[in-house]
Amino acid sequence: MPEQRRTNQTIHITGTSTAAPHRVFEVLIDTARWPDWAPMSAAEIQQPAAGDEPEGLGAIRRFTTGRTVSVERVVAFDRDRAFSYELISGLPLLDYRADVTLEPTAGGGTAITWHSEFRPKRPGTGWIYRLALKRFIGDLVSRLARTAERARVD
Predict the structure, then answer these.
(1) N- or C-end of the chain: fewer Cβ atoms within 10 A?
(2) DSSP state, 34?
(3) 4 in a structural domain
(4) Rounded Cα–Cα distance for residues 53 and 34 (Å)
(5) What is the pLDDT of residue 1?
(6) What do you get for the CA distance between the two ends of the chain, in Å?
(7) SS3 content of the chain, % helix, strand, coil (to 5)
(8) 146 is a domain residue
């Protein structure tokens, strides 16, 4: 019996915040504070990145959402502009990568783009995870934008 194809799944969410990109970025990379604004019960840096940015390139982060514990590695870190991570464990997905980009808007705010791609471990289940993650990530983008707007001014 031939192996069923596992097609790539894509999620592309955009949002805007009236907060400047540096404020949005600071909220995004502050792993320990995610439970304050995101639907997660726990978040921590499991292994800090080397150098000046403990949440930067190479950092390993651990998130708990309900009974799901996911672990991810930061694979791109461009302060105030871009942040990317790959899933190490926690969901039955292969090659999961998310790229979050922040672009300044004309009014001093930020355009947020969260783009994710993955393949399901089990053929035929990709659409289920795409729908669930699309809702989850859409909520994250909205919460990220609002939290950055309420963040203290530097």
Answers:
(1) N
(2) H
(3) no
(4) 17
(5) 35
(6) 61
(7) 25, 40, 30
(8) yes
Residue of higher predicted confidence among 153 and 139: 139
Q: Name the token pair of 71.
A: 């672990």
Is 57 contained in some domain?
yes
Please state, in angstroms and as integers, the Cα–Cα distance from residue 44 to each residue in 5, 82, 153, following that order: 35, 20, 25
Q: Tokens in use for 24?
A: 């949005």
Is the overall model pTM greater than 0.70, yes or no?
yes
Contact criterion met (CB below 8 Å) for 44 and 69: no
Q: Give the angle subtended at the CA of 125 by the CAs of 123 and 130, to the nearest 5°.
A: 130
Tokens of 56: 């930067």
Residue 153, C-beta contacts closer than 8 angstroms, at least 6 positions apart? none
Instruction: Report the number of distinct structural domains present in the chain.
Output: 1
Res 5 pLDDT > 80:
no
Angle separating helix axes 126-150 and 21-29, nearest 10 degrees? 120
Q: CATH number of the domain that 135 lies in? A: 3.30.530.20
**Dihedral of alpha carbons 152, 136, 42, 69, sign:** negative
The structure tokens listed for 75 are 């694979």
40-67 pLDDT, tens digit each: 999 999 999 998 999 999 999 999 998 9
- Residues paired with residue 116 on neighbouring β-strands, in sequence order: 11, 98
